[in-house]
Amino acid sequence: MRPTIVVLGSGDRGRIYEPPLKDRAMIVSASRTIGYELAVAGCDLVVFSSDAAYVEKDVVEGYLAATVGDGRVIVRAPHGVAVGFDTSPEAAERIQVEPDPAGDWETSYYRSVFGADGIIVIGGGRSTRIAGVIAVAVRIPIVAVAAFGAGASIVWQHLCRHMNDATADDLHLMGRSWTDASANRLVASLLAQRARRQAAQEAEQKARRRDTIRRAGSSLAGATALSLAAASILLAYMTTGIGAALACLLVGPILGAIGGALVRDTAEAYSSLLWSAARGIGAGVLATTLYVASQLLTNEDTLTAESARRLLWFVVPMGIAAGYTFDLVYAKLRRVDVLPNESLQPTSTDAAGPPVAD
């Protein structure tokens, strides 16, 4: 798909710019050369006016003068505003006027910035500066021709602070004085920024797909572990031996803890399925051991087949909760002092000095 490049700016001799405009006489030829290089590079051109006060008129003339490619010139102007370029009938067929129903130039002007594949700003005043700053803020590839000063130089300074997909060489190129090779290099710089931006977007999409797969895997593994934990309760009632019941008493809450940890894993920004499963095993073993040990301390006859079945109804949910909250509880425990600080204050005896010899 052909990249769509928006060109903005002006170099009107009768207008006062802040910062001042530089090399007014060279802006016309520079604009035409930029238009020519955009056509050679296979880009579509977007402009907003055919008024000679703006650089678009000269950019379009240079663009249509290129005999290569079949690129389009898209003119986005308010409805009812006449647009016309001095060109041959054959070249005029490449001009596509898209009237904006909003009726004011600001709407089509700033809206086009968000939909552009790249932006070039030359000279210009307040509106050019605002459009350039918007492009930098939303990370649209941009070339600010700072050699001619005015609004484009402010955009260049703003881009130097944020860079986005521009390299240091790109920024140095934008700030240099204009030469015969500048247009070709600046267009190449703009397209290189676009390529880097596309590569970054593709990398983000791949990362999101990997994250989606990871979360789906964690959800599936967690659901499987929780199902097996619930099945351990049923299996304990289907067996009559004490060994099988005790095995269910041990495995059931551990599976529940693994399931709880994996379910928690799906809500984490950065996590690992294996680490979550290991955390669940640790939480399940700890919770089950502590609870069963407390029962044995109070009643030595707890571990019978029937009592193991009854304990499963409690330790399995406890294992799920332990796996889901283990990292939170552990982090809190690490911040808690074993004894309150006030209990460590010295007694009145301790505070007294050594006995004084008579």
TrEMBL record:
<keyword id="KW-0812">Transmembrane</keyword>
<keyword id="KW-0472">Membrane</keyword>
<feature type="transmembrane region" description="Helical">
    <location>
        <begin position="311"/>
        <end position="330"/>
    </location>
</feature>
<keyword id="KW-1133">Transmembrane helix</keyword>
<feature type="transmembrane region" description="Helical">
    <location>
        <begin position="216"/>
        <end position="238"/>
    </location>
</feature>
<feature type="transmembrane region" description="Helical">
    <location>
        <begin position="130"/>
        <end position="156"/>
    </location>
</feature>
<protein>
    <submittedName>
        <fullName>Uncharacterized protein</fullName>
    </submittedName>
</protein>
<feature type="transmembrane region" description="Helical">
    <location>
        <begin position="270"/>
        <end position="291"/>
    </location>
</feature>
<feature type="transmembrane region" description="Helical">
    <location>
        <begin position="244"/>
        <end position="263"/>
    </location>
</feature>
